Amino acid sequence: MLNVSWRSETKREMKISRLSLIGLLVAGSLHAQPLDPQMNAFVNELMSRMTLGEKIGQLNLLSVGFDVTGPLLSQDADAKVRQGLVGGVFNTYTPVAVRKLQALAVKESRLGIPLLFGYDVIHGYKTIFPIPLGLASTWNLDSIEQSARIAAAEASADGLNWTFSPMVDIARDPRWGRIAEGAGEDPYLGTQIAGAMVHGYQGANLSQSNALMACVKHFALYGAVEAGRDYNTVDMSRRQMFEYYLPPYRAAVEAGAGSVMSSFNEVDAVPATANRWLLTDLLRSQWGFQGFVVTDYTAIMEMSEHGMGDLRTDAELALKAGVDMDMVSELFLKHLPELSAHGDITEAMINQSCRRILEAKYKLGLFADPYRGCTEERARMEILTPENRQAARKFAEQSFVLLKNDAQILPLKKSGTIALVGPLADDQSDLLGPWHAAGDARFVVSVRTGISNVAGSAATVRFAKGANLVDDPALRKLLKKFGSEISVDPRTPQDLFAEAVDAAQKSDVVVAVLGESSGMSGEAASRSDIGLPECQEELLRALVATGKPVVLVLMNGRPLTLNWESEHCGAILETWFGGTEAGNAVADALFGDYNPSGKLTATFPRNVGQIPIYYNHKNTGRPYKGDPGAKYVSRYLDVPNDPLFAFGYGLSYTTFAYGEVKLSKTTLTGNETLLASVTVTNAGQRAGEETVQLYLSQPVASVTRSVEDLRGFQKVFLQPGETKEVTFRITPDDLKFYNGKLEYDWEPGEFIVRIGGSSTQLKSATVHWNKTTHAP
Ligand code: BGC
Fold first, then answer.
1. 70 CA from centroid of ligand 1 (Å)
2. Dihedral through CA 329, CA 335, CA 337, CA 338, nearest 10?
3. Confidence (pTM)
4. Alpha carbon 636 to chain centroid distance?
5. How far is the CA of 69 from the centre of ligand 1 (A)?
6. Rounded to the nearest whole angstrom, what is the distance from the C-alpha of residue 227 to the centroid of ligand 1?
7. Residues 753-774: pLDDT tens digits?
8. Is-contact 708 751, C-beta < 8 A?
9. Is the beta carbon of 169 within 6 A of some atom in ligand 1?
10. Strands 266-267 and 270-271: what pairing?
11. Average pLDDT, integer, range 467-480
12. What is the 117 CA–ligand 1 centroid distance (Å)?
């Protein structure tokens, strides 16, 4: 049944694709690029020789190899590859493993079509960088792009050609563990980062052997799962989608991402993987996406749990919606032949998806060299190099956010005695974070080692673990089962505390390195309580009770609730999971060899009851205006409305003073450009870097707007006493939003231009912007 000839179909399709090409060019779509005629001819010729079964095989993606990233494992991979029933695999890497499997495809399958080799290269390959939430906190697009470039160079040297990244899901709920994998809560910053990462992975040209094809995920809205519970339902208005959640996916598509991953959740009551509006109307017709769509892990299979019907129906719905490749379910392989034979789907649909996958392979240069020059020698030369480690150290430093620094406890002097305490103080594996590709804990620099590298023998360090990461046996068991290495010190909590308190008492300062185990954030790691684990909280209280100054160094994959900590610790440095060089970078920051400059990209709430809490909220009809006795206003009885640490917040060892906002004009018309400037002065004693942020507000519009929206940022490095003027160019494009008809446009009126060092510390000025001076 599978050996049907599709020659006539291919001819018809060739005609269709020429016609649709003309259509695209005529329509002048943003992304309409003339097809590469050579590629077109190559794919046409190849497809003319493929059986229906072989074409369906290209739509099949298996998980084979070293890692397990979902609930099912693919079976009989070798045999299927030989039969031409596999388009790609993921979780296989290293030149030896990749070459072996690729050789099966190339030499032993009938047509010798090479495989795609995918992997979750999320924040570095073997040289691990900070988790994406940390990288985002750098607000440094060059560093972010470079991190993706290095990741691509390392991963491709190890045989990979495709990464399931960037993850650009906007997240406003820190209970959701996957907030660790994205850029945080803001669509503007999210779009900038999405573009930078795609460029970093894909380089100048996908065919270069050190490029990886990017896969933007999880399309769409996965970050808005209800109650922060992973895989949960998503339900939101179209305006909310367009205004806040969709822009980063679109930016990744516009940056040329070769593939898109459909998400697990539903969108408008239809699972994303079956959602034709999402995957075809929006993604292809409106945004002009030309690559291929792959599902998330077994997402087609999961559609039956969503209530979409039996598995055969699910396969049909997914293909018709616009899915090209089925990750692990193998339901395309199983059901498309029969669906096609019964006329439930057309051959053209299969051809179209097959073509997209073959085109991706062509663009990656796989038909020219299926191994893309991966050799053990190249892997040895290009992976985990000193330069890459140096970059990792720099990015980690840039990602740290100084949340508190009373009485200038930090930076520490490289002298005296430091009590280094906490379950993460001498840890290596957790520093890699929850999704660390081929990262190897043995190469990770712990904080303990970092301090000794940076301070040498000038400072005495008294180390005490003080507590285990978690004491709750049920949680510990679960984390272990899910693959986290939780090293457990068998001593009693009292003995561990006593040793730590003793070290504190004999020291000048305490550095407590506390936080989550890496398995407490990331996929399938939602938490309803986002505080420090209880045993660590108790340890911290005991340390504070000694009266010694306490510096809290945090490692975690999400915003935490830190009320008690922020009141009682002298300094708090948020270091996320900083990757391979985390320990050196932490030491650089602690001793002032690096002056922290990171800024939060996700709000830190005071308690879980405030969630969702995000800076770009609406005003409501009854806003709270600061009167503590006010009733009938939008507020809580038991907690302030504002967060503990706001979006954009982050301190430095110096202070920055902002001048007033100066505008080039206060009334503008149409397409004019507004220049908005401030002076920023380094008012402290140390050189430092500031991220100057621009927010815009439009108090009156045809739909309610956020109280403010980030629209720009610039980084400035200032010597002590130095002043620089920072200027933003604002055009009507920056004023645009989605109106009630979902048109992206701007409306005339009053705009408040706000500039400053955090979303809540801003200087402002007002302009009036008219559409025209007179009617056209
Ligand atoms: C995750 C994706 C990931 C895929 C492959 C899924 O469970 O949601 O982000 O890319 O597995 O590992």
1. 7
2. 180
3. 0.95
4. 32
5. 6
6. 21
7. 999 999 999 999 999 999 986 5
8. no
9. no
10. antiparallel
11. 93
12. 14
Q: 524 CB less than 6 Å from ligand 1?
A: no
Q: Is the CB of 69 under 6 A from ligand 1?
A: yes
Q: What is the DSSP string of 481-512?
A: HTT-------S-HHHHHHHHHHHHHTSSEEEE
Whether ligand 1 lies within 6 angstroms of the CB of 371 is answered as no
Asked if residue 693 lies in contact with residue 756, where contact means CB atoms within 8 angstroms, the answer is yes
For the Cβ of 54 lying below 6 angstroms from any atom of ligand 1, the answer is no
Catalytic residue numbers, as ranges = 296
More confident of the two residues 34 and 582? 582
Q: Kindly give the number of the ligand 1 atom that is closest to the alpha carbon of 164.
A: 10
The CB of 217 under 6 Å from ligand 1? The reply is yes
Residue 310 DSSP one-character state: S
The reply to whether ligand 1 has any atom less than 6 angstroms from the CB of 689 is: no
User: What span, in angstroms and rounded, lies between the C-alpha atoms of 118 and 98?
Assistant: 11
Residue 370, preceding peptide bond in cis (omega within 30° of 0): no
For a mutational test of ligand 1's pocket, the pick from 296, 300, 302, i.e. the residue with the most ligand atoms closer than 8 A to its C-beta, is 296
Contact of 603 with 643, CB cutoff 8 Å: yes
Q: If pLDDT is split at 50, 70 and 90, which confidence band does 665 have?
A: very high
Mean pLDDT of 26-39: 60
- Taking the centre of ligand 1 as the mean of its atom positions, its distance from the CA of residue 471, in whole angstroms, is 29
Beta bridge partners of 514: 554
Given a contact cutoff of 8 angstroms between Cβ atoms, the answer to whether 149 and 214 are in contact is no
Query: Which of 120, 162, 163, 165 to mutate to test ligand 1, by most ligand atoms within 8 A of the CB atom?
Result: 120
**What angle (nearest 5°) sits at the alpha carbon of residue 297, between those of residues 293 and 301?**
95
For ligand 1, atom 6, the nearest C-alpha belongs to 297
- pLDDT for res 480: 87
The minimum-distance atom of ligand 1 relative to the CA of 165 is 10
286-311 average pLDDT score? 98
pLDDT-based confidence at residue 35 (cuts at 50, 70, 90): confident
Q: Is the pLDDT of residue 9 over 60?
A: no
Measured distance CA(708)–CA(419) in Å, rounded: 43
Ligand 1 centre distance from Cα of residue 217 (Å): 9
Q: Which atom of ligand 1 is nearest to the CA of 222?
A: 8
User: Per-residue pLDDT for 399 more than 50?
Assistant: yes
Give yes or no for a contact between 172 and 615, defined as CB atoms under 8 angstroms apart: no
How many Å apart are CA 623 and CA 620, to the nearest integer? Answer: 6
Q: Are the beta carbons of 3 and 57 closer than 8 angstroms?
A: no
> What is the atom index within ligand 1 of the atom nearest the CA of 67?
12
CA 14 → CA 38, 48, 54, 395, 568, distances in Å? Answer: 13, 10, 19, 48, 70
Confidence of residue 196 (pLDDT cuts 50, 70, 90): very high
pLDDT at res. 774: 58
461 CB-contact burial (10 Å; exposed 0-12 / middle 13-18 / buried 19+)? middle
pLDDT of residue 68: 67
Q: How far apart are CA 615 and CA 761, in angstroms?
A: 12
pLDDT digit string (tens) for 232-249? 999 999 999 999 999 999
Could you identify the atom of ligand 1 that is nearest to the CA of residue 261?
10
Q: Which amino acid is at 197?
A: M
Distance between Cα 239 and ligand 1 center (Å): 28
Q: Which one-letter DSSP state was computed for residue 137?
A: H
